[in-house]
Specification:
530 residues; alpha+beta; Creatine Kinase, Chain A, domain 2; 45% helix; 11% strand; globular; Glu_cys_ligase; glutamate-cysteine ligase activity; Gln_synth/guanido_kin_cat_dom; Glut_cys_ligase; ATP binding
């Protein structure tokens, strides 16, 4: 371990500090497509029984009306976070009426682009804005690409931990700035080492043949209906032939919060000629996209991790970061594991905690251009060929074998697992890490290898539907208790009522609302109310 990492681990391991690590917060967002009994994309509206996609705190939609998103509260125990996610799955299945939740990150066989339904959020200004934004995504990237699903893992260290580290570092910054600087340093280390997560948890080495829509690609034919790459771990996180030329120059390397927010603010305010040529409205005056800039809003920037801050009503994410600093990080590169009913389990969450703690406590020098490029290249190399025997990555200008570097990292992360186990009691974090060591030793144990093993006898779509139905049986076998069901029924009803109130009480017209919303990131306007 580095000297700084050793000192930080020793500090947090002191008896009067050890309990702090039980106060980390964990939240999960799980996306999944609704499909019919034949594995075709559901073209039905978002079930009203699930409440309002605009205002429900736990059940919403992402890009498509058929792309559900489940959101947990942020809880100290990841087992509690997963229990909340499981409860939401069980409730949803009780309302699906014969539909299924797709078990994979890569989508089912999709209908023609124009048939894929964009998510609807009602008649309020904010609901319409969310719809127009998604229309813009369809124009810019195509609807097919927006039907990919994943898992986002939100993680924060306790507020009381930062003053301890700041004192150890003898840093005289204000507390908010120190915390933000530390989270940005954590993100830099995540960029350095996240290729390891792709090897360990990537679960999308194959996809339905129709996904590419006839575009040129380098994928191989596994069977008549399935494309794949033989050593891929996560085609979801590869370019798949879809590259955003508009975002090509937008590559924040997270050397400080200000440069990150400034780069996104600039992208939201800079026109991009191909989008300018499309315009914001069609000949009938109907909205096509929110603006003609590189990004319509900051969340359009695709990244494997984001610095985050809980926003106030109507507040932009960048406004919140600038005003109050980084509060937590959002890991966005995790595939849905098709062998797990919720796509993620406690073992994975506990390893992620150790990995993220390592990223937070390890030294994290600024990324220069060459290292920034190497981080990107390592990540893309592993998602496309991470299981290739003898694969080498770049580290400090030299080639290093993936397996050797992975074992070195796991040896250092072991110290974090031990620290977390001492804090929580038990050995579950070390056991979770041992399971990852076994995947490095035997590539056949990785989810991506296990998926390809299943595809020796059936197509991607057949395997995915089979797993979807197995997961449905799992959730339906154990219905919610009457109390749990009543609570979720009430939440759904409250969300519908809240949406109706927003629609009834809004003022002004939609055009003015959009203009104010756009101006809020470019100037210093007060956050607008939804």
């Amino acid at each position: 371990m580095s000297n700084l990492l050793s000192r930080r681990v020793a500090l947090l391991g002191e008896p009067n500090h050890l309990s702090l690590l039980t106060q980390c917060l964990h939240g999960i967002e799980r996306e999944c497509l609704r499909v019919d009994s034949d594995g075709q994309l559901a073209l039905t509206p978002h079930p009203k029984a699930l409440g309002s996609a605009l205002t429900h705190p736990q059940i919403t939609t992402d890009y498509s009306e058929a792309l559900l998103e489940f959101i947990t509260p942020a809880l100290a125990d990841p087992a509690s976070t997963l229990a909340s996610l499981e409860q939401t799955h069980r409730y949803t299945y009780s309302k699906l009426g014969g539909e299924y939740l797709w078990s994979q990150s890569m989508p089912c066989a999709l209908p023609a682009e124009e048939v894929i339904p964009i998510a609807r959020y009602g008649d309020s200004h904010i609901g319409k804005l969310k719809y127009v934004y998604r229309q813009g995504l369809a124009l810019r990237y195509g609807k097919t690409m927006q039907c990919i699903a994943g898992i986002h893992y939100n993680f924060s260290l306790p507020d009381q931990l930062w003053p301890l580290l700041q004192s150890l570092d003898s840093c005289n910054q204000c507390a908010q700035d120190y915390q933000s600087v530390s989270y940005i340093a954590m993100i830099r280390n995540f960029r350095r080492y996240s290729w390891l997560l792709m090897y360990l948890f990537g679960a999308s080495p194959a996809l339905d043949v129709g996904f590419m829509r006839g575009r040129p690609h380098s994928l191989q034919q596994l069977d008549a209906d399935t494309l794949y790459l033989p050593y891929a771990t996560s085609l979801r996180m590869s370019d798949l032939g879809y590259q955003s030329h508009a975002q090509a120059e937008l590559t924040p390397c997270y050397n400080d919060l200000a440069s990150y927010t400034d780069s996104l603010r600039q992208a939201v305010g800079t026109p991009y000629l191909p989008y300018v040529e499309i315009g914001t409205r069609n000949a009938n005056g109907d909205w096509l996209q929110l603006n003609t800039n590189i990004l319509q809003i900051e969340n359009e920037y695709y990244s494997s991790i984001r610095p985050k801050r809980v926003t106030y009503s109507g507040e932009r994410p960048i406004q919140a970061l600038v005003a109050r600093g980084v509060q937590y990080i959002e890991v966005r590169c995790l595939d849905i594991n098709p062998f797990l009913p919720m796509g993620i389990n406690l073992e994975q969450a506990q390893f992620l905690d150790a990995f993220l703690l390592y990223c937070a406590l390890q030294e994290s020098p600024a990324l220069d251009h060459d290292e920034c490029m190497a981080c990107t290249e390592n990540f893309l190399k592993v998602v496309k060929e991470g299981r290739r025997p003898g694969l080498h990555l770049q580290r400090k200008g030299a080639q290093v074998e993936l397996k050797a570097w992975a074992n070195q990292l796991l040896d250092e992360i072991q110290q974090m697992a031990d620290l977390l186990d001492r804090s929580h009691g038990g050995v579950s974090h070390s056991q979770a890490l041992q399971a990852q060591r076994e995947k490095v030793a035997d590539v056949r144990l990785t989810p991506s290898a296990q998926v390809l093993e299943q595809l020796q006898g059936e197509s991607f779509a057949q395997f995915a539907l089979r797993q979807s139905k197995l997961h449905a049986d799992y959730f339906n076998r154990q219905p919610l208790s009457p109390e749990q069901n009543a609570e979720l029924e009430q939440t759904s009803a409250d969300s519908l009522r809240e949406q109706a109130e927003i629609e009834a009480n809004q003022e002004g017209d939609f055009d003015t609302f959009v203009a104010t919303y756009q101006a809020s990131i470019l100037g210093h306007d007060e956050p607008l109310s939804s």
